[in-house]
Write a structure and sequence with these properties.
- The protein has helices at about 5-50, 55-70, 105-115, 130-200, 205-230, 240-250, 280-295, 350-360, and strands at about 75-80, 85-90, 120, 125-130, 235-240, 260-270, 275, 300-310, 315-320, 365-370, 375-380.
- Strands 6-8-9-11-10 form a five-stranded mixed β-sheet. Strands 2-1-4-3 form a four-stranded antiparallel β-sheet. Strands 5-7 form a two-stranded antiparallel sheet.
- With about 375 residues, it is of the alpha+beta class.
- Strand 3 (about 120) and strand 4 form a beta hairpin.
- Helix 1 packs antiparallel against helix 2 and helix 6 packs parallel to helix 7.
């Protein structure tokens, strides 16, 4: 979600809630005014009929009262003693003959569910419903309460997102500052190693200086990785074959070869296509998977296999598999959770970082694949 959008959603929901309250209140006030006006007219007609001595004045007053009642919008059905409809008003459907329309009986049951019918000895029963105002009073508040509940949920989400964003900014700032601070000693060490290589007469010393130079180069790459945290990833052609070979070559020189030997194999199924991505971040993610495999084989030895393959849909799969103890089935669903680790000294951020690089920065997928033994992680890129 784009930064700032939760606040916009929260503001829009508040505006919607306030607007609905104002609109609903305005309509209710208007309907109440109409009800007051109709009641006043009925009251006036009754007193007018009482004071009018002309012939038929009473009948005209009753007809006027019936029209006023119809104008109130109350659905009404009158039935005789046998339950047959004799008159109706304000129905939700057109009726040509109230005595023959079968829909009236079904609608009578609906009206009786809303209000108990009135009994008149001369007419029979009067079945009536509610006015549109009453229906609105029943429905609109429910909608407003639902909107208020959504506001609370969104408000909680906004607070949580803002807290996460603040923490990410702090961590990103600390990472970039650490990379900046590492720059000076790394440059100094590079000079000392170069001097050591020039003056080394013993082959073993020269070899040690070469390995130190390789480690220094790795430290420099790590520093550059920390500089990239919190910034937009680069998008450039990436040769996944060369990337996997580079990771394997680096770790081969640093795993046990005598006791508890760890062998690192590389296999390429054809020539996977070039992909668009950030080579620095992708190499970081593959190194995390390889390092986890090495840790799983520590103290027992084993074999790690890094492989690449072209997928049928044009994508690339990078697989890191080991024949170690594997991950218990009860913990497989949690391996990518930040802070979760099966190692006592682990921080639990490696796999979550790798998944974030693959899925958020490269729109790919990092999964823990099924395996007969050990652990197998697949990176799917397209």
């Amino acid at each position: 979600m784009r930064r700032g959008s939760p606040e916009l959603i929260f503001a829009a929901l508040i505006a919607l809630l306030l607007g609905s309250i104002l609109w609903y209140t305005h309509n209710v006030v208007g309907d109440l005014r109409l009800e007051a006006e109709r009641s006043s007219r009925i009251y006036a007609r009754i007193y007018h009929a009482l004071g009018d001595t002309t012939e038929g004045a009473g009948t005209q007053a009753l007809l006027g009262l019936s029209r006023s009642i119809v104008e109130q919008g109350v659905p009404v059905i009158v039935t005789d003693a046998a339950g047959n409809p004799t008159a109706a008003a304000n129905l939700p459907f057109e009726v040509t003959d109230v005595t023959k329309d079968a829909r009236l009986r079904a609608y009578i049951r609906r009206l009786d569910a809303e209000n108990p019918p009135l009994v008149d000895p001369m007419l029979g029963q009067i079945h009536f419903g509610n006015t549109p105002l009453v229906e609105g009073l029943r429905i609109v508040p429910v909608l407003q309460v639902a909107t208020a509940a959504i506001l609370l949920i969104v408000g909680f989400y906004v607070i949580r997102v803002r807290g996460n964003v603040a923490r990410e900014r702090i961590w990103a700032g600390m990472a970039r500052e650490s990379a900046h601070q590492l720059g000076t000693p790394l440059s100094s060490l590079a000079g000392w190693i170069e001097l050591l290589e020039e003056r080394a007469e013993d082959p073993s010393t020269h070899a040690a200086a070469t390995h130190m130079s390789a480690d220094l180069e790795r430290l420099d790459r790590v520093a550059h990785r920390f500089e990239r945290i919190g910034r937009e990833p680069k998008c450039e052609p990436v040769d996944v074959t060369a990337l996997v070979d580079r990771v394997a070559t680096y770790f081969r020189a640093r795993v046990p070869t005598l006791a508890n030997t760890i062998a690192i194999d590389v296999a390429h199924d054809g020539a996977p296509p070039m992909i668009e991505g950030d080579p620095v971040l992708l190499e970081w993610a593959i190194e995390v998977l390889a390092k986890n495999a090495i840790d799983a084989l520590a103290g027992r030895g084993g074999r790690i296999r890094l492989s690449t393959a072209r997928l049928s849909d044009g994508g690339v799969r990078i697989r890191v598999a080991d024949n170690g103890p594997g991950i218990p089935s009860g913990l497989r669903a949690r391996v990518f959770e930040p802070g979760f680790s099966t190692k006592q000294s682990g921080w639990g951020i490696g796999l979550s970082l790798a998944r974030r690089i693959v899925e958020e920065n490269h729109r790919g997928k990092l999964v823990l694949a099924a395996a007969d033994s050990g652990a197998t992680f697949d990176v799917i890129l397209r």
